Amino acid sequence: MKSLGLGILGSGKGSNCRAILERIRAGTLPAVARVVVSDVFDAPILGIAREFSVPHAYLPPGQFKTRLDLETETKLVEMLRDANVDLIVLAGFMRVLKTPMLEAFPRRIINIHPSLLPKFPGLEAWKQALTARETVTGCTVHYVDEKIDHGDIIAQRQVPVLRDDSAETLHARIQIAEHDLYPEAIAQLCAQRSS
Ligand code: GRF
């Protein structure tokens, strides 16, 4: 099986990035992490990249809060091309990607979202599930398109909502499911691309 070169983008704690890097290190995910990029200078995800000896970079995000400006997004495309990535893995990346990235990497950018999409796109999806009194929620790995938390679904995992769940306990259980689902979904893409 050909191993896929990954570019991982994140803004925060990086627990999904860690799960992916652990699976690569254990030899159960045929991929190579080529670069980790963050738009947050002191994001823990950059420390995780360092810990696993993966090249990493801080990308100063520019003037906007929820997206990158054109120049910065074009620079990100260059960085990922230079790193020779096959697949871009969003792992808690809090900026909406626009044309430069979407056109440079069509159907090569994936994201994980903490709900069973198409239900509950947007922020704090686990709280949305609690408010809606769902009995089951979960997480979704999907291709990224121009809409937020939207695009063809690659894999999903259900997580039951327990009667005494708080936002914190539910979120924690969804994250445990994410840490298994994301590497598995990437492994599935590796298998598809080398067949
Ligand atoms: C995950 O819960 C994911 O669903 C969402 O952002 C969170 C990132 O968490 N897109 P982490 O940084 O991987 O811990």
Describe the protein's topology.
Elements: E1 4-10, H1 15-26, E2 31-38, H2 44-51, E3 56-58, H3 70-82, E4 87-90, H4 99-104, E5 109-113, H5 125-131, E6 136-143, E7 153-160, H6 167-193
Parallel strand pairs: 1-2, 1-4, 2-3, 4-5
Antiparallel strand pairs: 5-6, 6-7
Helix pairs in contact: 1-6
Bound molecules: 5-O-phosphono-beta-D-ribofuranosylamine.
Residues 10, 12-16, 91-92, 112-114, 175, 178 line the site of 5-O-phosphono-beta-D-ribofuranosylamine (GRF).
Q: In oligomeric terms, what are we looking at?
A: single chain
- Assign an overall shape: globular
Bound ligands, named by name, code or SMILES: 5-O-phosphono-beta-D-ribofuranosylamine
> In sequence order, what are the helices and strands, one letter per element?
EHEHEHEHEHEEH
Distance, first to last CA: 8 Å
Specify the number of helices. Answer: 6
- What is the radius of gyration? 16 Å
Largest sheet, in brief, is: 7 strands, mixed
Name the beta content range: 15-25%
| Cross-sheet strand order for the largest sheet | 3-2-1-4-5-6-7
Low-confidence runs of at least 5 consecutive residues? none
Kindly state the percentage of residues in helix: 25-40%
Strand tally is 7
Provide the residue-averaged pLDDT. 96
Which class best fits the helix and strand makeup? alpha/beta
